[in-house]
Each structure stands twice: as structure tokens, then as C-alpha cells.
Amino acid sequence: MGEESSKAMLRVTGVIAQYWVVSISLVYINKFILSEQSAPIFITWSQCIVTCVICWVCGALGEKMRETQSGATREKAEEGGHAAGKPSPDSSFLAGFPKARYDRDAAIKVLPLSMVFVLMILSNQLTLKYVEVSFYNVARSLTIVFNAIFSVMILGSVVSCRTIACLAVVITGFIVGCGGEVQLSVLGVQWGLISSVSVSLNSIYTKKALPFVMNDAWRLTFINNANACLLFIPFVIYFEGAMLREQASTGTLFSRSIVTGLVVSGVLGFLMGIVSVMQIRVTSPLTHNISGTAKAGVQSIMAFYIWDNEATVLACVGIFLVLFGSSLYTYVKITEVQKGPAKVEGGKPLLPK
């Protein structure tokens, strides 16, 4: 029993660590791209396309590897080696990657998630565009507050008084952090609030959408990003079409740094979609958002040195309150799970049994 619990904890820790590394890297590379290119919708759309291409390539390679391994398994079975139908011990990651197929029925069922996903990634980009990297954490710190609200509204969960007190600490950190920002962007704060709402909804709708794709994170990633590519097209044309045509005519649209950044960020975006789904599956929507908030705090501290952002007393206090409130929130939820039914707002135990 203890060994199983340790393995579960180790698995959760590993997934969360992967999420942190990929997420922080993605934020920093996106900040660089947004500083070089003034078309955030086009950038986000391009990243979704790169993700779809990666899924298609991995799916095609995976299909070929499965065919090769299937033939080898049959030969070994005939020779008295491995039993037919038994997976090869040297099966690789790609061998388990499903073929990228755009199933219309599944795509329609996943569409609500895709709409939230589009709003989430776009609002994330616009928040990052208008605020300093160090303030990005505070601007989006109300994610767990909205997650608790939507958990009550959508999942019918009950929020305790202790939980509300923890959320109050996070809200206080948000207000103090805004007051301590040297170059406060009201537009950036507004997009940060929209981002907080959409991130909360995305974690909940991801949980609901997984059964439509046979609980396969790879299938969900491809279909979700394919839907996003289609949904982004009218916005790219309407809001940034003229700008992109002008940049194309002057040859500045696809500079080497921009193309490299888009490819790297697209790869990281692909990995981000996967590790996000993995984190939600092994924990819960609530824990996913808490992990994201804590990661953002570390990310902000690093930004003071990497991006040379000015660190005021109020800004640091705001970050501390957000981290403290989130950590306290985690402790409260764990104790509530241990005392009552093994559920959190996401409707799933923090650790698998």
C-alpha cells in the first residue's frame, strides 16, 4: 500500500515537473516573439498549425512502427518467441502515438473545449504582450478563484469557509501586485482576468472532452488544435490581415528569428498541451491550476533577473501573497479530502488509488 502511494506520488511529481519546465520555456520564448512581431493572433494560429503538423508526423511514424513491430511479433510467435498479440518489450514512444485523424463527430463534441482553448491561448498571449514577464504571474493569479466559482456552478461542488479565506489571500495578492507594478498596463490586466477565466474553464472542459476521444491525450491534442486552426482564421483575416500583407510585401513577415521562434514555440506548445492533459489526468483540474499558479510565481522571480524587470516591494509582496494563498489553498483542499470523500472540485482524487 505504501509502495503504491509512493509510486503515485512520484508519478505526479514527475508530471508536474515536466509541466513547469515546458511552461516556463514557452512563456519566455513567446515573450521574445511578441516583442519582435506585432501580430499575436497570427502567432498563436501559427503555433496551433505547428502542433497539428507535429501530431500528424508522429502519428504517421507511429503507424509505420506499429506495422513493423506487428510483423516482427508474428514472426517471433511462429518461431516460438513472443506470443501473438503481446506487445514488444522495446516498443517506443512513437509506437503508441495514434494516427492523426480529424474525426468530424469527435471534433464537434470537442468544439466547446476548442472555443475555450482559443480564448485561453489568445488571452495568454495578449496578457504577455502587454505586461512584464514578472507581472504575468499576478495578472493571471485569479485562476484558482474562478476555478472554485466554476466548480460550484458547473460541477456542483461545495466551497468551505477556509477555502474562501485562502482565495481572499490570493485576491489580496492580485490587488497588491497591481499596485506595485511600475509600468501597469490596464489592458494587460484585463486580458489577464480573461485568461484566468478561460484557463479555469479549459481544465474543466478538458476533463469532459477526454471520453470523446477514447481518453487519448494525443487524439485530443490534434483535434483540439485542428479546431483552433479553423476558429482562428476569421480573426487573423479581420484583425491582422492588412498588417500581415504589408509585412509580406516588405519581407519582414518571415524573418529568420521569427520563423525559428515560431517553430520552437510550436514544439513547446505541442508539449504543453500534452503535459497539461497529463497533469489534469493524474491530479485534478484544481491541482492543475494550483500547480500553474505556483509555477508562475517561480517564473516571475526568474524574470526579475532574466528580463531585468524592476522589483518593487509591493510587487514582491503581491507575488508572495499569491504563492502563499495558493499553497495554503492546496493544504486546505488536501485536509478536506482526507477528512471527507476523496474528491476535490475536479471530482477526482488528488492521487490515484
TrEMBL record:
Residues 69-90 are annotated as: Disordered. It is found in: Membrane. Pfam families: TPT (PF03151). GO terms for cellular component: membrane. It comes from the Eukaryota. Its main location: membrane. This is Sugar phosphate transporter domain-containing protein. It comes from Ectocarpus siliculosus.
